[in-house]
Amino acid sequence: MMRALPTIIQGGMGAGVSDWRLARSVSLAGQLGVVAGTALDLILIRRLQIGDACGSMRRALDHLPLPGVAQRIIDRYFVPGGKPPAKRFAAKPILSAAPGKPLLELLIASNFAEVFLAKEGHDHPVGINYLEKIQLPTLPSLFGAMLAGVDYVLMGAGIPIAIPEAIERLAAGRPAELRLDVRDAAAGCDFRTHFDPASVSDGGTPELARPRFLAIIASTTVATALLRKATGPIDGFVVEGHSAGGHNAPPRGRVQMSAEGEPIYGERDVPDLAALVALGLPFWLAGSFGHPQSIDVARGLGAVGIQVGTAFAYCEESGLKPELKAKVLALSAQGEARVFTDPLASPTGFPFKVVDLPDTLSDPAVYEDRKRTCDLGYLRHAYCRPDGTLGWRCSAEPASDFERKGGDPKETSSRKCVCNGLMANIGLGQVLDNGEYEPALVTSGDDVATVAEFLAPGARSYSASDVIRRLIPS
């Protein structure tokens, strides 16, 4: 049965912020709840190491239809009662083009668990959001989410041409592959990552329901290219403007900077919505649409509805640390919340919106004091070594390491460790050698300036349903 399209899509804000609790709350309210699919393998094992106090992770893993996988993960990572606060989190295998079975199982199980919990106890649709720039975990992650019955897959931060076909192949229980973006590769070199569902299911190839696929785009040009080049079906688009949080598409054409050092967006960066309407697929508008009347405005422009991120990021159900929510809401209420579109912060090279917040990596003193490291590796990019093999480097790692691997040392200037910062945002930051924790790196859209408007008079917090009621008044 084909369901009606949602009016509101809850954005897939930073790793673990759009967690299963938030997505479940939004779906129960009749809109599309979306879990963030980034770094779920790491989030799962850290939740297990702090004790999984509510038992949700273990309950979800108990339903994983891959015999023995859940128990192997629990045996390796679960700490009854939680690890001592001063003890470092145990590491997991780092991503590679040919991951071993333990990492494959972890990727599948973690994506399954997050979607399972978001869908638990109801039959409303749930989506998952991935970044095209993070290629290595995509195929097993998709498979895990589809095992849990995910209804929508959303992907941005790149042009996801190969994803629709991969979804179709995985739904049919067939092997899938993705071409890797590799720097310094000689002409004709072709590196790929592969995943076969039979490799983790004792030779069985379960047929799964195909989720709808929504590509997150910034221009009609990208939408047209996707429809022309993708070999599987695209079911719609989320059109994300440069005021949206997280990673933004860079300005088109020659990049110019403001006096404050932010990229300047112009007329060329405004999508041609009339041309998008002509493509005949549903679309949702994102970026500063978290306000009353936004739905009417979006529909007047031909959209089905809106995607909203920032308003949900600071609601009670999101995974953001409560103290960070409180600080940002207080700043917003005082008219002092500010976001800086940082052209250098992210190792991806995409502009990245960072909330100006004391004691986080937005503070130059905190950034300079942090010892550079790359121990998580989600935003590393592949490069081809002189001998033709794959190497991995990250412009946020120590500059000497990056240069030794053939990287331009200029690329390391002002780069921030987004991976560790996002874990700190959700209370899962690593313990450092000095006993302190990795500093946070909070990202939001421009709407953070007015997000306190969702607070009732005298209130210090608000719920996901409060957001929906304000955006869709009865």
In the CATH classification, which architecture of the domain at 8-319 and 457-471 applies?
Alpha-Beta Barrel
Helix content: 25-40%
CATH topology of the domain at 8-319 and 457-471: TIM Barrel
Give start-end ranges of low-pLDDT stretches. none
CATH class of the domain at 8-319 and 457-471: Alpha Beta
Average the pLDDT over all residues and give the rounded result. 92
Q: Give the count of helical stretches.
A: 16
Strand arrangement within the widest β-sheet reads 1-11-10-9-8-4-3-2
The structural class is alpha/beta
For the secondary structure, the number of strands is: 15
First-last Cα distance:
27 Å
Radius of gyration: 21 Å
- The general outline is globular
Helix/strand layout:
Layout lengths: L7 E3 L9 H9 L4 E4 L3 H10 L6 H7 L6 H9 L23 H19 L6 E6 L6 H10 L4 E5 L6 H9 L4 E4 L2 E2 L8 E4 L16 E6 L2 H10 L6 E5 L32 H7 L3 E4 L7 H7 L4 E4 L1 H4 L8 H12 L5 E4 L9 E4 L8 H6 L11 E4 L5 E4 L5 H6 L13 H8 L38 H8 L3
Parallel strand pairs: 1-11, 2-3, 3-4, 4-8, 6-14, 8-9, 9-10, 10-11
Antiparallel strand pairs: 5-7, 12-13, 14-15
Helix pairs in contact: 1-5, 2-5, 3-5, 5-6, 6-7
Q: Could you please describe the fold and organization of this structure?
A:
The chain has helices at 20-28, 40-49, 56-62, 69-77, 101-119, 138-147, 163-171, 220-229, 273-279, 294-300, 310-313, 322-333, 364-369, 399-404, 418-425, 464-471, and strands at residues 8-10, 33-36, 126-131, 152-156, 176-179, 182-183, 192-195, 212-217, 236-240, 283-286, 305-308, 339-342, 352-355, 381-384, 390-393. The protein is an alpha/beta fold. The protein has a domain at 8-319 and 457-471: TIM Barrel. Strands 1-11-10-9-8-4-3-2 form an eight-stranded parallel beta sheet. α1 packs parallel to α5 (101-119) and α3 crosses α5 (101-119). The chain is globular and about 50 Å long. The mean pLDDT is 92.
